[in-house]
Task: inverse folding
């Protein structure tokens, strides 16, 4: 670079001298001397083509210009910008006066070519992968070795080591000549040094905030203590700068609006101990006195003050004020969302005035602007799913008033489809300038939604039980080879080799009949059981469902009509004397509300469902034996509460659920099939009976205590049950493969009927588990649960039990 500027000055001075000589030779009024290029040569090029270099210079034979001239400077700059040369000069080799009074020039372009990369070698690296260093250097074989690029690469490699905690790593880059004079080999050697660990974080000037609280306010910069297994003590400069802002935010949240960091220092002691000292200025604590609102017309000042959430005398929490003003808050109750959901992209500002020493008057200025409307609503990236399948889920329609709530709800609906990469699912906005139109584009990335499902369970008596099946979750009956129509078709086979239990089923569902939120589907199945009792069943179900707008559009109702034909060949102590043909005709209604945000890993929202099932067949002549005449009621609720958010994502979620059920006979000849009675335990995969999961206990071994025992390994069933669960889930990753860990506390029991139900008489368990959502396979999970109570009324605790499944979750 120094040579480049020297050459530029040299040329300018030389040409200026020529210019002065020419003027001195011309009598009378000075006239600008013209120069003409008669020839151009290139000196120093080894691999570069001479004519190409001349062309790139921009100078050509016959070109006229005065001196000094910007053309020469521009030519040198253009050659330099090619990135091929380490030095560029343009010199005048010869001058010849011309008959027209101009002076002819013979120019030579002197260049020094940069070497090209032969091979690169990286040594000394242990903590950073070679591939990462090569990517940071960004050189390929044959590239020109530019000094400034070498330095930039060294800086990037240094940053990799700093991120890994090696802040004193030394990076040395050597150019080694080769037999080819145009090439050099690069040798990058690393002296990593020792990993730096944060040992002490101290504060000065903090009289109103405890040092421990300030340390806790820092998310990523933590002291390394032997007893804190969750802190690595790593130091990252970028994260440290963010943590300093969080310290100031902590003070602001406590009313210290003037707080700031005056200075900070980082130094080392010993070989790898890092020490941090932060000097803070706290200032005074402030309180809210008055809040005034000007410019608001769509909403009243009182409504805006209500959404700000402050009252006179409250501590002035600046962080909460900013969040409640601009948002978004978790429940979108902030003032910004208030306007966005009404169609106004309002500009909200606040002014603060300190009064009476420790109080603040706040003036909120609102510039509402005009009401905005959706103009174009587009979808991009859907290579399989058809446009209409996506559009029917959207709550943003052209011509509707702009609403952020509608966009968020649309994103939830697309997420619930489970057709797209959750992390790539995002809307894109284009607000038309000086207009009231907003264009929104939903960018999606397809992922595999069809699954090969397998469920496996194990019980000491029942052995292995499992199922295999194929589920086409984005099927199109009119285009079966391509799919993308949003329909669901599934074929499954459940089998237990030890219990000789086998069932095969085929099901189909259209979730949007005639492009309306009405679902229609069917299922047919055939079952054979030859363990404990021997029976064959053939059944069919027709289902119809509808999403409603009242009380809100999270509600839906599903109805089903089912017919079952059973042939009990051998009762085996379960059916007792009820051998022969049994028929069942039933109707079922489920009223549900589901507002969770994701089908794979819900982090917010809830689920409620109320089930009513009635089986009644008064015409006994249809079957030679007793038909099923009974009812079943069930109620389930689940709540998902985010507990910890990191990197813009809810990482830790608490799921709490309660599930109760009750049944009884109806009609003049009531009859409940024994396999429909409630039993509990394990993964809920026991063969041939209605089983409720309860981890920490064997499959289907929790039933009515004190009931008459039978030769069946199953517990005696009951007419009532209760099941309660608290599960803490930690998401490890969502893409490309969702993985989460969990710990649970579970309790439940089965009773003879609801009059005997005792919510304090339950079987309790604790445990841990993990889940992995594998594409084309489904959910894979394993749980280790410890049952604190005996399986029956007496005996030892159930102890440790292992439960695992493929394709099924609790």
Result:
């Amino acid at each position: 670079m120094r040579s480049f500027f020297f050459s530029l000055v040299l040329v300018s001075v030389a040409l200026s001298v020529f210019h002065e000589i020419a003027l001195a030779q011309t009598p009378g009024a000075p006239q600008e001397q013209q120069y003409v290029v008669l020839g151009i040569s290139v000196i120093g090029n080894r691999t570069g083509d001479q004519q190409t270099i001349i062309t790139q210079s921009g100078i050509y034979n016959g070109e006229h210009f005065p001196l000094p001239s910007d053309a020469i400077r521009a030519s040198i700059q253009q050659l330099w910008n090619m990135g091929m040369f380490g030095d560029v000069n343009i010199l005048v080799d010869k001058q010849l006066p011309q008959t027209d009074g101009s002076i002819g020039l013979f120019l030579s372009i002197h260049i020094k070519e940069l070497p090209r990369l032969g091979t690169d070698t990286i040594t000394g690296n242990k903590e950073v992968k070679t591939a990462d260093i090569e990517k940071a250097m960004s050189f390929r074989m044959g590239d020109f070795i530019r000094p400034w690029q070498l330095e930039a690469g060294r800086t990037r490699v240094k940053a990799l080591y700093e991120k890994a905690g090696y802040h004193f790593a030394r990076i040395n880059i050597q150019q080694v000549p080769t037999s080819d004079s145009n090439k050099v080999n690069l040798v990058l050697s690393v002296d990593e040094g020792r990993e730096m660990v944060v040992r002490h974080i101290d504060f000065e000037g903090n009289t109103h905030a405890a040092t421990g609280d300030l340390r806790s306010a820092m998310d990523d910069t933590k002291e390394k203590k032997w007893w804190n297994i969750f802190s690595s003590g790593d130091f990252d400069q970028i994260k440290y700068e963010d943590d300093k802002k969080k310290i100031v935010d902590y003070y602001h949240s406590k009313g210290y609006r003037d707080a700031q960091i005056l200075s900070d220092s980082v130094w080392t002691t010993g070989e790898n101990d890092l020490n941090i000292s932060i000097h803070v200025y706290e200032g005074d604590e402030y309180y809210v006195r008055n809040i005034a609102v000007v410019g608001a017309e769509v909403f009243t000042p009182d409504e805006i003050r209500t959404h700000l959430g402050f009252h006179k005398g409250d501590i002035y929490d600046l962080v909460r004020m900013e969040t409640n003003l601009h948002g978004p808050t978790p429940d979108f109750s902030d003032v910004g969302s208030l306007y966005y959901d009404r169609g106004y992209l309002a500009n909200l500002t606040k002014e603060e005035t300190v009064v009476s020493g420790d109080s603040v008057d706040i003036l909120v200025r609102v510039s509402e602007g005009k009401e905005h409307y959706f103009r174009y609503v587009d979808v991009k990236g859907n290579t399989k799913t058809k446009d209409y399948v996506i559009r029917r889920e959207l709550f943003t329609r052209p011509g509707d008033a702009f609403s952020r709530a509608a966009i968020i709800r649309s994103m939830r609906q697309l997420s619930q489809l489970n057709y797209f990469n959750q992390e790539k699912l995002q809307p894109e906005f284009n607000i038309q300038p000086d207009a009231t139109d907003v264009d929104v584009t939903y960018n999606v990335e397809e992922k595999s939604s069809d699954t090969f499902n397998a469920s496996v369970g194990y019980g000491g008596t029942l052995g292995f039980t499992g199922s295999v099946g194929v589920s086409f979750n984005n099927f199109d009956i009119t285009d079966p080879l391509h799919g993308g129509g949003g329909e669901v078709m599934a074929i499954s086979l459940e089998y237990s080799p030890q219990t000789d239990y086998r069932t095969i089923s085929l099901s189909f569902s259209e979730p949007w009949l005639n492009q309306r939120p009405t679902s229609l589907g069917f299922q047919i199945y055939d079952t054979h059981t030859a363990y404990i009792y021997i029976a064959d069943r053939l059944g069919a179900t027709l289902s119809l469902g509808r999403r409603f707008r009242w009380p809100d559009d999270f509600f839906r109702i599903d109805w089903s009509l089912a017919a079952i034909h059973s042939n009990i060949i051998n009762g085996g102590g379960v059916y007792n004397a009820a051998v022969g043909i049994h028929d069942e005709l039933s109707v079922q209604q489920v009223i549900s509300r589901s507002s969770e945000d994701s089908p794979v890993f819900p982090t917010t929202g809830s689920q409620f469902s109320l089930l009513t099932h009635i089986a009644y067949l008064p015409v006994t002549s249809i079957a030679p034996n007793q038909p099923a005449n009974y009812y079943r009621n069930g109620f389930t609720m689940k709540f998902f509460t985010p507990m910890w958010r990191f990197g813009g994502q809810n990482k830790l979620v608490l799921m709490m659920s309660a599930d109760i059920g009750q049944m009884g006979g109806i009609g003049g000849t009531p009859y409940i099939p024994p396999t429909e009675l409630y039993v509990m335990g394990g993964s809920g995969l026991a063969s041939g009976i209605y089983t409720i999961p309860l981890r920490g206990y064997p499959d289907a071994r929790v039933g009515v205590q004190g009931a008459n025992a039978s030769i069946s390994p199953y517990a005696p069933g009951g007419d009532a049950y209760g099941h309660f669960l608290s599960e803490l889930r930690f998401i490890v990753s969502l893409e490309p493969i969702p993985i989460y860990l969990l710990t649970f506390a579970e309790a439940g029991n089965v009773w003879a009927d609801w009059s005997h139900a005792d919510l304090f008489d339950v079987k309790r368990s604790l445990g841990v588990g993990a889940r992995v959502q594998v594409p084309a396979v489904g959910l894979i999970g394993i749980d280790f649960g410890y049952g604190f109570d005996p399986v029956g009324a007496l005996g030892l605790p159930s102890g440790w039990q292992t439960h695992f499944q493929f394709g099924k979750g609790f």
